[in-house]
TrEMBL record:
Gene Ontology terms describing biological process: spore germination
Protein name: Spore germination protein
Record keyword Glycosyltransferase present: no
InterPro entries reported for this sequence: Spore_Ger, UPF0353/GerABKA_families
Organism of origin: Paenibacillus algorifonticola
GO CC annotation, single: membrane
Keywords: Membrane, Transmembrane, Transmembrane helix
The keyword Nucleotide-binding belongs to this UniProt entry's keyword annotation: no
Family designation: Belongs to the GerABKA family.
Amino acid sequence: MMDDTQLSKELHHNVEEIRKQIGHSPDVVIRSFCMGDLAFQAALIYIDGLVDKLMIHEQVLKPLMHLAKNAAEYDRRTAAAEAIISAGEVKEQNQLAVCVMEVLSGNTVLLIDGTHTAIVIDTHGWERRSIEEPVSEAVVRGPRDGFTETLRSNTAMLRRRIKDPSFTMEMYKIGRRSQTDVAVLYIKGLTNEALVEETRSRLKQIDIDEVLESGYIEQLVEDNRMSPFPQVQNTERPDRVAGALMEGRVAILIDGTPIVLIVPVTFAMMMSSPEDYYERWLPSSLIRLLRYGAAFIALFLPSLYIALISYNHGLIPTKLAISIAAGREGVPFPSIVEALIMEITLEILREAGLRLPKPIGQAVGIVGGLVIGQAAVQAAIVSPIMVIVVALTAISSFAFPQYGAGLAIRILRFGMMMAAAVLGLYGVILFYILITVHMTRLKSFGVPYLSPFVPAHPSQWKDLFLRFPLHMLKRRPAMVSPQDDKRQK
């Protein structure tokens, strides 16, 4: 609960109270001065490193010290706020705790002796990363700009794409200690009000000390926290967020991270990419079908190998069975142990490649995979066919346009392998049924995760497995219940 203590009319008392709350840190600057011919004692308070010092000097301090005589007909507060300070955004505040928070947020607070109202001046000026191409989402065709760690830069990139007066932004501060700025973006008159209200409600229920990255928000607002499937989409791409907003979804931006959240999300969204709409419909449809095929391979291929080798030999063609048997000659482990050795080794190599410096990580991934695979075959620890299965699985798992969806498949693959080792093909089928039941019951902000496939909306299947021509996609997704469902006349 924020303290509602009011500012005093005595300048030294206000300065001491703010200093007491912030502490005597060397980066806290308190500049006392006299306002020109008016002879008003005043003080500027800001944090070095969070403000633009040149702006403070030219637009605040210099006018107040040298031009204050032109404002003699005004009272102390109005003179500073309206007649002298030339900064773009100036507001008044009389609560002590709010003034402290404004200073910690990168603003400058002006205190004037004899008035209990402070003037808060927007002087943000910290170092920021320039706009670059997204790192986690490769761009084949489309805009090359990606979000940065600065909230205002990110909202500006979306404003450039959506020049709609109804484009609405709501600001929140989440985190008792971090006081992180969080923005909720939607298009009024297009986005369903129930969805916006649900988003507001879930954000207001968050009670935590710090929000250091969007992953905190993602984990605290999702519907089912035990599910391996992500129920909030995250992205670095402004074009993906702009497209989601135009469909009637809600975006959540967090200051200090380039990762933006989109709600609600469906599994079909996880399998699509913005490039699907930039290319012509035939190649886009083919690529999307390849992604679904890659998802099938990444989830089922190791378990099918285990089931066929251990239980269902009769389903393997004779010549292939003889070839597999010859390759497994001398391998001392059952197929499940063989598969686990290779899969765990692959996951370790993948994680090591991510954590190492980029040039070294690529070398470790390639050389490590080749050397370990070849050595394992020569040592008769695994069979050559197992190396092929693991390689195909690894390549297929990289085909997901969203990292979160690929991670869920990687987790479920191990459960599928265990089921195949215990019950063979029956185990594979039973585990697949469990996954399907779970996904059918799963929701994201009230929207079924498998929509528009379950529940069935045949009119929405034009953008499911295939991407029909753009002139046929005349309506927005029905699962988010947009107020305006027509996107084309």
